[in-house]
Amino acid sequence: MFQRKLLSASLLLALTTPVHAAESADVAKLRKEIEAMRANYESRIQALEKRLETAEARSAAPAVAVAPSVAPATVTEPAVAAPQATPVAAAPQSSDSAFNPAISLILAGQYTYTKRDPANYAITGFPVPSDAEIGPGDRGFNLGESELGLSANIDHRFRGVANIALHGDNSLSVEEAYVQTMGLDHGLGLKVGRYLSGIGYLNETHAHTWDFVDAPLAYQAFVGGQYGDDGVQLRWLAPTDTYLEFGAELGRGRAFPGSDAGGNGAGGGAVYGHIGGDIGESHSWRAGLSYLQAKAKEQLWEVADLAGNSVSNAFTGDTRLWIADFVWKWAPMGNATVQNFKLQGEYLRRSQKGDLAYDTAGANSSDAYRSTQSGWYLQGIYQFMPQWRVGLRGEQLQHGTVDYGLNAASLAASSYDPARASLMLDYNPSEFSRIRLQFTRDLSREGLADSQAFIQYQMSLGAHGAHTY
């Protein structure tokens, strides 16, 4: 009997031993993986805690003001120091997006109707270089300007951004390509590369965020639609409850109203300041003042002389541009999803001083040139129900004073004040899509009133960062 029980126990032990051995191997493997994950995460947590300590040290200064918004203000609890992690072997650190940048694609296109031939478009009394983006564009169906964007945090100090413009004529241009600092002390921020200037209100915003199909007339006449430069930009956000920001730029001055002279020195520079805040829970505002200075060398202007002939004139000299801007926004209790209203306006004043060579291909007569001109626009955008907005924009240029010197015998200063009025209606199924209808009465050309109509679509694919206030 005893031998039978001993034989049964031996048999049972023999059958169960492989099962327990397999289970032990699986448990050991899982424990090994857990330990590896724990070591990896503890290393990351330790790195984050070091960054948190640095951020807490900076927060000892007064709280930095934030840009105004229509959302109600919130109270932030004081940061609490995190407990120190147990030291472990350091693991290689890498950015999650170092080799995986955020990619966005803005698809844009439109149908354009004009009563007058857009090929002959000009702004009477306000000559611009031939490569400036002015006027309604080509008639009929057009692909428009799409935008390919790439951005990523390079490391804990730098961020890189590139925006490539895809034009309807199958050409490409670099709209922006810059490196931006992250986490500099004392509210400072530095940007180096090609960027849209921070002057004014509308200039820095991308075209697909505009409330109308085209840029205001003053922007077209004074900066060729939008001003960008290659250089360095420094901004400072004041540590105040009121939003207060100052900026300065120094660059090549390659774009109109400047020109690329190819010298070693800077060809342009700008300074500006912005102030803003919230009024209650439903209102917010921002105001700004900007100054831009640019140098031009033999900048070609195509104009008509007193005999009615089209001639090329070359301007060499300095341009100074002042911009005053104001924006006011309203949304009931800070909720802009159902109803909201935006009132936006800018005043631009330009002075030019230098020499103008008349008819460079013929007479090539050069003499002193002086001008002081201005312009403004005012627009209101009302979202009267979810997904639907209506807008109205009025604008005008003042011919000011223009002195051609001895060339006044061939060129006449115009006394005409160009103007436009636009009405738009757009439908936004989501934050990623927009369909817009716009009607414009264009009085840019003296004696040639133009009626224009646009149907535009804008579609956003991929990740796209938030835009400024």
From TrEMBL:
Name the UniProt record assigns to this protein: TonB-dependent receptor
Gene3D superfamilies associated with the record: Porin (2.40.160.10)
Superkingdom per UniProt: Bacteria
Residue ranges that the Swiss-Prot or TrEMBL entry lists as coiled coil: 20-58
NAD in keyword set: no
The keyword Manganese is annotated on this UniProt entry: no
Listed InterPro entries: Porin_dom_sf
Keywords: Coiled coil, Signal
SUPFAM superfamilies linked: Porins
Signal peptide: 1-21
